User: Fold this.
Amino acid sequence: MKPILNISLITLFSVFTLSACMQENDNTTELIANPAEEKTPLQQSKSGDTPNTEEQTTNIAQQNEVEETTDVSSTGDQASELEQFIEGQHYRTLNFELPTEAPAGKIEVTELFWYGCPHCFHLEPTMKEYQKEKGDHVYFRRVPATLNPQWEIHAKAFYIMQLLDPDGTKHIHDKIFNAIHKQHRRLRDEEAIKNFFISQGYTEEEVNNAANSMEIQAKLKMATDYSTTSQATGVPTLIVNGKYMTSPTMAQGAVKLKRVLKFLVDKSTKE
Assistant:
């Protein structure tokens, strides 16, 4: 019985450790306002730094191991499992339906994320897998969350990336995540963002033109409106067809998240 108990304890610990990057209602807000204070790894992630302790890395590895073990042992009949996803536990229905951009006949899946969030960073491989597996009837998009004013600079970086690298050939999205979480670069202000894009081969004029464009301002307003109306309290958060919300925490793991998304997409298709 001891191995089972150990796995259970690891699972509980991992869920709480890797739940989400929260908005201003958590304990990290004061640390953003007072950057000189000493920060814990989770608090550092709130202000844009990356946790660099071995403990955090171990926790992430443990969660991945537990998720793989759990999902492999429980996937005998996925169709049956999909029916077990419960509203209020694995997902919830939003009070107000959000606007969607999906073409007619497609179901939209939107990821609310923040570049400074380590949980969003570690969810990236799962979301890339999901994009390959989702099917042509699903329209996937990302919206940079602005749940905290400090996150707005990263939202701007996302939309500058969309203007300068619209087809993703330079993989700027991945490079921003890596710059923050692997290279520990502090992309916290306009100058730092500009220098980052210049380092990717763009001219200062190209970056300035994109950053100051009316299109960027419109997109930032849309992201703020979407973040506020969604009533999300943290990221990563997934919203299906503007109506249903879930997350790795609600789904009880990143791998199972893909199955919850499939369930919600199927549910939306039938409605």
User: Anything to note?
Assistant: The domain at 2-270 is CATH 3.40.30.10 (Glutaredoxin). The radius of gyration is 19 Å. Residues 6 and 73 are 17 Å apart (CA to CA).
